[in-house]
């Protein structure tokens, strides 16, 4: 009886959230200056947010599981901590490349934070984010200029 009530309440909540979210997206698209870009953003943001959440959860779970039951000052703890740092850095690097854009910039920033982050994160980000970044073509750069400034790069200079 209680399980049916909970299931029904959850399904109603999911339907209400979907309806409200769909309405908000529709209102945003209709009232925006660039409906295509707004629709694209409304599609990308939830996907990126889901990836971020799953990545964070998997890294936290890896730390909890890998270090569980180990004595903090032991050699096994230090070795396990190094391994989990390396795995976490690789997972985070993959997230940055999959999400692209500002996430690449975040990875580049992380590569410079050796005074805050574990060295495994810094080294992983330095090896990838500073040397293997996606490259934009000249046409893409010109498109950004036209979109943001209303002029081509030649007209700005």
TrEMBL record:
Keywords: Signal. One of its GO terms (biological process) is lipid homeostasis. It comes from the Eukaryota. The keyword Acetylation does not apply. One of its GO terms (cellular component) is mitochondrial inner membrane. Residues 1-26 form the signal peptide. PANTHER family: AARF DOMAIN-CONTAINING PROTEIN KINASE 1, ABC1 FAMILY PROTEIN. This is Uncharacterized protein. It comes from Colocasia esculenta.
């Amino acid at each position: 009886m209680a399980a049916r009530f909970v299931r029904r309440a959850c399904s109603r909540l999911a339907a209400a959230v979907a309806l409200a979210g769909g309405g908000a997206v529709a209102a945003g698209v209709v009232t925006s200056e660039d409906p295509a870009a707004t629709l694209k953003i409304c599609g990308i943001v939830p996907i990126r947010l889901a990836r971020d959440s799953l990545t964070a959860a998997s890294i936290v779970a890896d730390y909890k599981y890998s270090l569980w039951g180990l004595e903090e000052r032991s050699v096994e703890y230090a070795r396990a901590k190094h391994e989990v740092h390396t795995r976490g850095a690789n997972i985070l690097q993959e997230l940055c490349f999959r999400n692209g854009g500002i996430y690449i910039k975040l990875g580049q920033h992380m590569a410079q934070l050796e005074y805050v982050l574990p060295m495994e994160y810094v080294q992983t980000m330095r090896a990838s984010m500073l040397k293997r970044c996606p490259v934009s073509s000249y046409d893409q750069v010109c498109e950004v200029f036209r979109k943001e400034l209303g002029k081509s790069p030649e007209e700005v200079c």
